[in-house]
Write a structure and sequence with these properties.
525 residues; alpha/beta; 8-stranded mixed beta sheet; 7-stranded mixed beta sheet; elongated
Length: 525
């Protein structure tokens, strides 16, 4: 019957985002009853090394919510062409249009709302699907009622949407919450963007939201102005459903900072609108030719992919724990435990596109072999690129491409540099005072040289049409002689030694290289 379209990203937009979004997602799913109903959440520009926002809060979502939700992930690389035109990190018109293009064509209605709304049918046990199924064609709005922060934050249970809706029916009367705030037409009510129900075919006919609106605010008012022209009127569903907004103004969000807020021009996009159509984007609204990743929380989750990769690449440990040491005399010891380290390497990969191609510059053949197995089992389809300059590595692994470093550079989406000892055996004790032999030193010298070259020339050697920097993952680069090398060139966080892994983007300003702290005479982060 209807597709709900929401957007956001995995950040901290406004106050207590995780709770109010979970409350909202679950409440919206609760009032769905048609098998074609869906929640389309566009995760816009979340950093590649983060999961999408719904994935991050999946444990607070009901099973029904997980079943009806489709997550459409727009990557930073797909936003990069707009980055210079806006101060915003998440764009409303683009998000909503991407979802509209990919919405269920069997649904009659598109409902635009936000991730902090609860919709309460005025007749108990009536669904929003029933309501929308029984109203005539048109364009519908409802007023937004504010819900004080203390009520939703302290009294709502994220996973009890039925109970939350029941509380709202009580509170709305007990605490006089229902105040209708009228606005200038075509904005029938204040904050109209929290409920606008339009026919799907109408939205396609008028070419969706206006994608030239890049400064924030008034996208919903522009849509209302255009749909009012197209339909000839604006209708209301106030007699059938109430909408409650989880107020979150204790902390200013990115587009709610008073005079600092940059807005789209009201005259251009509201009062002077003369046509419902946007002919300039008639052929390309909603990015029809862009491949958009879709994620479902009720199947093939990141956790399942992660454990599938690790289970394929290693066996369970035979002892309850292992030991290592941070003693100074072991600073030059480069031995490490691959089965212990591999989970932390895979953890750096999982949230990236499955088509990612990763270059592996490594010393230990076992590391490459185990990673290749995990990579495939995690569902990645991109190539593992291994430079021929790296000697002693396997040449017959499925999904691995061997070529010169220079040849592989423009094919690479991500780098892994592993600074281990090629001669270390799988059963050899870790950090027991082992020194590098001639073979080890020779191969580590090659890895160091290729690392410097890749990091220093990253911007010039990216794949064609790529706009964002590539990620560097360093393996066995904490508390040893390759720690300062890696952090000279890569802006990595300070990680615990136990993970053995650092990751980040190459430093943009060459003058920052070498600006690392010193700790007891040793160069550190």
């Amino acid at each position: 019957m209807f597709s709900v379209i929401l957007y956001g990203r995995n950040d901290t937009h406004g106050y207590n985002l995780h709770k109010r979004a979970a409350i909202s997602f679950n409440a919206i799913a609760e009032v769905m009853s048609d098998p074609d109903d869906e929640i389309l959440f566009v995760d816009y520009n979340t950093p590649d090394d983060h999961p999408t926002f719904p994935e991050a809060i999946h444990d607070t979502l009901t099973e029904k919510t997980k079943k009806v939700m489709r997550i459409l992930r727009i990557r930073p690389e797909q936003h990069a062409h707009l980055k210079s035109k806006t101060h915003l990190v998440a764009l409303e018109s683009q998000s909503r249009n991407v979802a509209l293009r990919r919405s269920n064509p069997r649904n009659r209605w598109i409902l635009y709302t936000n991730t902090d709304m609860l919709l309460v049918p005025r007749v108990e046990n009536e669904s929003l699907s029933d309501i929308l199924g029984g109203v005539p064609d048109g364009f519908y709005q409802i007023p937004r009622f504010e819900l004080p922060e203390m009520l939703w934050e302290a009294a709502f249970d994220r996973r009890d949407p039925a109970g939350n809706l029941a509380k709202l029916r009580d509170w709305s009367v007990r605490y006089h919450l229902n105040q209708v705030v009228h606005n200038f037409m075509p904005m029938k009510y204040d904050a109209l963007g929290d409920f606008q129900a339009a026919l799907r075919e109408d939205m396609f006919e008028i070419h969706g939201f206006d994608e030239s609106m890049l400064l924030g605010w008034h996208c919903d008012s522009n849509l209302a102005a255009r749909l009012a022209l197209y339909r000839g009127r604006v209708d209301t569903l106030i007699d059938k459903v109430f909408g409650y907004h989880c107020d979150h103004t204790r902390v200013a969000a990115a587009n709610n900072k008073g005079r600092q807020t940059r807005m789209n021009n009201q005259d251009q996009y509201i009062w002077d609108v003369a046509t419902p159509y946007i002919t300039a984007q008639a052929e390309n609204w909603g990015w029809p030719d862009v491949e958009i990743e879709e994620i479902r929380l009720d199947r093939d989750t990141s956790y399942q992919r992660f454990t599938a990769g690790l289970d394929a690449a290693m066996k369970p440990a035979e002892v309850s724990y292992s030991s290592t040491s941070l003693e100074w005399h072991l600073y030059d010891d480069l031995t490490y435990d691959i089965p212990h380290t591999l989970p932390f390497v895979c953890d750096q990969m999982l949230t990236f596109p499955r088509s990612t191609s990763v270059m592996m510059v490594a010393a230990r053949a076992e590391f490459v072999s185990r990673f290749a197995v995990a990579w495939k089992a995690m569902g990645f389809t991109g190539k593992i690129l291994v430079p021929t300059e790296c000697e002693g590595l396997p040449t017959d692994l499925e999904g691995v491409e061997r070529a010169s470093f220079e040849t592989l550079l423009p094919k690479t989406d991500m780098f892994i540099f592993e600074f281990g000892l090629a001669t270390q055996r799988a059963d050899e004790p870790v950090r027991a005072g082992r020194h590098a032999g001639p073979v080890d030193s020779k191969r580590l010298k090659v890895i160091s040289r290729l690392f410097r070259q890749a990091a220093a020339s990253e911007a010039e050697t990216r794949p064609p049409n790529r706009r964002t920097a590539r990620r560097f993952v360093g393996v066995n680069v904490i508390y040893n002689k390759f720690w300062p090398l890696f952090t000279d060139y890569v802006g990595a966080n300070i990680n615990p030694f136990c993970s053995q892994v650092l990751a980040g983007l190459p430093r943009i300003d060459p003058s920052l290289r070498g600006k690392v702290l010193r700790f007891r005479g040793r160069r550190a982060l």
